[in-house]
Amino acid sequence: MSAEPLTPGPAVTRLAETVLPTRHGVFTMTAYRDDGGTEHVALSMGLGDPEPGSGPGPAPLVRVHSECLTGDALGSHRCDCGDQLQQALAQVAEEGRGAVVYLRGHEGRGIGLVEKVRAYALQDAGVDTVEANLRLGHPADARSYDHCALILEDLGLRRVRLLTSNPAKEEALLALGVEVVGRQGLSVPVYPENARYLRTKRERMGHDDAVQDDADGVNADEAPDDPAGARYADLTAPDGPRVIAQLGQSLDGYIATRTGDATFVTGEQDRTHLHRLRSLVDAVVVGAATAVADDPQLTVRAVTGTNPVRVVLDPQGLLPAAARVLTDGAAPTLWVLGAGARPAADLDGLAEHVTVLRWETEGPMDPAQVLARLRGRGIDRVLVEGGGRLVSAWVEAGEVDRVYLTTAPVLIGDGVPGLRAPSVDRLCDAARPVVLDRWYLGDDTVTVLAPPR
User: Fold this and answer.
1) Active site residues
2) Stretch (H or E) spanning 450
3) Fold classification of 12-106+143-219 (topology level)
4) DSSP labels for 18-52?
5) Where are the alpha helices (DSSP H) in 79-139?
6) Considering 51, 146, 373, 446, which has the largest number of Cβ atoms within 10 A of its Cβ?
7) Interval 233-261: pLDDT, tens
8) What does CATH list as the number for 233-450?
């Protein structure tokens, strides 16, 4: 093992090597020190060939990871660094060939730990991550990848597939002689605390959500209505949201006219989006007023998928015997009736797909207790679909993890309200949900919100 600098100019010295067992597998860990005294490590796997990046087959996966104490070690949700590090190790381990180069001295995109904390304080006051660095007198990104290129050269990685959504990182390595034959992003969770940070990286630093891996022809972002696409990928992740809500409403906040006409506030693409959401949950919940007014099927028809369990919350027994959810047999239906409700339907003569659950009390049904009853029946992921009062009540109760709110470019003037929040006297007291994402469906706009807790 040589301790000599690898090349003239910027220099890196290989100093030690060992094995590192991790939850993802056993990696070879190689330690380096650069000519400025900063120490770095590379975690590699399957690089036994003399030139592993130049032989036949796909180039090895490589993640160039910038040190982030708060994200990597402390589990901060202000950034996505820790999740990206773990996902990169997992992907390299899954392929069995590649490396994660961990570059120290890159804290806060190169400004250092203390300055990063100062930048966080500015972000707390409302500026974004780029502006915070600039106000402190630093570049938006002060990182250099000269030493990383030398580490990759020492590992024999001259041709790589890069795990990053940052095109500037790819450009820097290309300029340093590393052949980047493909680039693919990492699928990591979005948290309310880092949604704005991720949006700033996309909008101000050129990071992309969708990148093409030229080596393998893998598109990391499918069309928005694809169940495997980036728009919906985390809905089925183990740590993804458990309760989501969806509403389509006018620009002035109504889901129907004052006569109850809701055909149709939003367009066809939004209905396909709604069916996609249904296909990704175990159950869809509606209030009895919505079931009476719209007589919905609550099934998956516009996309491929399994129909969810249909749950109708009916404190007063309003649902008519001819309602489709009670008669069509397309999906299991849970009819949750209030304690004193006397519905018109003959409960003894209901179809086999209908199960009646009696609520213990009269009046509105507490969302937390509804969820507990559903989970007791093995129902884990829930879509609260309507109407506006039901969705608003569940959001106000703090039981909704994510809201998909579609607004259509139409002004109704008066009618059935959509999403509502408790009224306030001062604007500073208004609820301010975090915007996780936003995209267009034809003329409609979908805004994805993390409700304030």
Assistant:
1) 141, 143
2) strand 444-450
3) Rossmann fold (3.40.50)
4) EEEEETTEEEEEEEEEETTS-EEEEEEES--SSST
5) 81-95, 107-110, 113-124, 129-135
6) 446
7) 778 888 889 999 999 999 999 999 999 88
8) 3.40.430.10
